[in-house]
Amino acid sequence: MRKTNYLVDSEWLSQQLDNPQVVIVDCRFQLANPNWGQDSYGQSHIQGAYYLDLNLDLSSEVKLHGGRHPLPDMNLLSQKLAQMGIVKNETLVVAYDDSRFAFAARLWWLLRYLGHNSVVLFDGGVCDWIKRDYPVDNSIPEVKLGDFPVEVNSEWLVDINTVKSAQNNDALIVVDSRDRDRYLGLREPIDPIAGSIPGAVNSPWKQVSNESGYLNSIEYQQQLWNDYQSAEEIIVYCGSGVTACVNLFSLSVAGFKNTKLFPGGWSDWCSYLGDKK
């Protein structure tokens, strides 16, 4: 049985299903099929889990600039969290998906951005839960009355202008979290222009876990970021600020505090390149 300040496993979670101080949130999603996560949740989910949708709950409306998944309206998100019975910094939130933390990490980061530090990821995701034959159902949990006042750690975010200025500062590291071929501009399945932010280094988010969705060791996470120990600040991005949060999670596990998210990511950056054509 495993529980740390950043991760829990199936055995531990299975013993908390009746614990009112633990709220489970299903974050499953597929970029290519936006309805899939909600549909899958409706068919079967970890017993008692709520659902938050990447597009509808964990992002806001897409505009000309700002990326494919702008951060959500924090007042609306806080209301949704309170309706799950979450009391800020009292309730433990357990976030899961089936995509190697790709979407659960977005919720993990958002909760901490909102000042709620009592949040962990579920190791192995729903696939591990089902494999071990723990309880699932298809019922929707009732609305509850929590308490989640809005306050944000605004210094955790950077915009495109800050990223541009970082290119002239050797003490600032900009990390591209996408797959290597997308970073190199050899392939771009989503955005209209291929490439990466000039000067960025590449650390693909999938390195954080193994192919079965289990987090690699703390020592492994530390090794991933060992070259950046002396960095004054580490700015992390991906396509649209989602899987970058997996790397931010890894950095947190490795003990780094000087990390920031560029939520617009490559989708925001390349939207300005398009303007020049």
Structural summary, described in words:
By secondary structure, the chain is of the alpha/beta class. It has two domains: 7-137, Rhodanese-like domain (Oxidized Rhodanese, domain 1), CATH 3.40.250; 157-275, Rhodanese-like domain (Oxidized Rhodanese, domain 1, 3-Layer(aba) Sandwich), CATH 3.40.250. It is 29% helix and 13% strand. The protein has ten helices and eleven strands. The strands form three sheets. It has a five-stranded parallel β-sheet. α4 (104-113) crosses α9. The longest helix has 11 residues, at 265-275. It starts with 6 loop residues before the first strand and ends with a helix.
Q: In brief, what are we looking at here?
A:
With 277 residues, the chain is an alpha/beta fold.
